[in-house]
Amino acid sequence: MIGMGLLWAAYGPAIPQLQRQFGTDEFGAGLPLAVQSVGSVVGALLVPVLLGRLGYRSLFGLAFAALAAGAIVIGSLPAWAAVMVGAVIAGVGLGVCDTLVSQSFIVGHRGRGAAMVNVAHGCFGVGTVLAPVLVAMVGVQNWPVMFLVVGALMVIAATGLPGISTSKGLPRISTRMEGHRTLEAPASGGSSGRVGFWVILGFLVVYVAHFGVQSGIGSWGPTRLMDEGSTEMQATLATSGYWLAMVVGRVAAIPFATLVRPSLVVIASASGMTVAVGIAALVPGATVWAYLLAGLMIGPIFPTGLTWLHSTGHARGGTFSYVVASALAGSILIPPLLGALFRTWGSGALAPTLVVVSLVAVAAAVTITLLMHDRPAERLNEGGLASA
User: Fold this and answer.
1) Whole-prediction pTM value?
2) Which 3 state secondary structure label does DSSP give 375?
3) Phi, psi (5° rounding) for residue 171?
4) Is residue 386 in a domain?
């Protein structure tokens, strides 16, 4: 997970150098992360197809190989085409790993799943913190070193494959979670089927929007800070602080994982994310502090949202993978869009655009809550677990 975090956060600090080295504009500089996200979506969608045929060990092995190969291609072949191809290959591996780890932790750890998935993604966050720091240490002109480090970490990770289960098929989705009220998965068809459709669609929107904000700040935050007068080093370190705040947010959510309903955590975090990017848009000179607050608020959304999805009873079959894929899709759509906006209106368009995207995430989370609240099945059964 640390290596995946390094890969995810390596692009943002490297954007100015990518523009200089390859002569691309703002839109083009955002494409490597976007195509990596395309690969990640493909990887997430492949999990329900391949897991039943290959099993966990083999599928993790292929994912590690793709991550290593893609990162090494980016770091060793100084050509724009190589960067793009390597990003897609590494993205496929990232999508597979992220989906397998998230679903396995939530289901496998049962009552502790909510806490453990926050721990797993906290490790991912450690990688995102280290990426800008390492770029600053080696110099932005030596950005390929970062990807070679990722490749080496994936090779090391592969040595742990013998300890991974060879079992096949998606894990059984339990309909009870310790500390939280968990719904029986509704039957397809009728009003329950329609509610299920809108609930899943709501999760798709939450994840597209929230990952859009996350990757938007991570990719274009350094450029905005430099336009405001920060040096390249200051902007890089501030970006590292943003990723660190995200780790802190995930760690801080762990004690509440079995005490507070996941829906409340997601809505509160998405609302805080909106306030943070609003501060960046409206308060001159507060961009760095606003990004730190945004990272703190963004941190719990992804892992806690997956726990929430699991608790609704709708995460059956490949649904879980589809929602993870939608999260990664936000990183396909938003960075290039922001690059296009920068080309027209400058980096000042970053915060206002992210405010709009963040509000969409809040609205979708509230809508899911209202849909689930209206369902008779959500009432506690006699003798059932108490709601947190």
Assistant:
1) 0.69
2) coil
3) -65, 150
4) no
Count the Cβ atoms, other than its own, within 10 Å of residue 188: 10
User: Which pLDDT tens digit goes with each residue over 193-220?
Assistant: 577 788 888 988 998 888 888 888 887 7
| 382 Cβ neighbours under 8 A, 6+ residues apart | none
Tracing tokens 């002569």 back to the chain, one arrives at 23
The count of other CB atoms within 10 Å of the CB of residue 241 is 18
CATH number of the domain to which 21 belongs: 1.20.1250.20
8 A C-beta contact, residue 44 and residue 321: yes
Cβ 299 vs Cβ 342: under 8 Å: no
Find the angle CA(67)-CA(72)-CA(73) to the nearest 5 degrees: 100
Give the domain extent around 334: 2-378
In a domain, 383, yes or no: no
Number of domains in the chain: 1
Q: b vs e for 336-374, b when ≥16 Cβ sit within 10 Å of the residue's Cβ?
A: bbbbebbeeeebebbbebbbebbbbbbebbbbbbebbee
Grade residue 360 by pLDDT with cuts at 50, 70 and 90.
very high
Give me the residue label for tokens 């507070």. Answer: 260
Rounded to whole angstroms, how far apart are CA atoms 121 and 99?
11
- What letter does residue 181 receive in the DSSP assignment? -
Q: What are the pLDDT digits (tens) for 126-183?
A: 887 787 778 778 877 787 888 888 899 899 988 888 887 777 665 554 444 444 444 4
In a domain, 328, yes or no: yes
- Asked if residue 384 is part of any domain, the answer here is no
Rounded to 5 degrees, φ, ψ at 48 are -65, -20
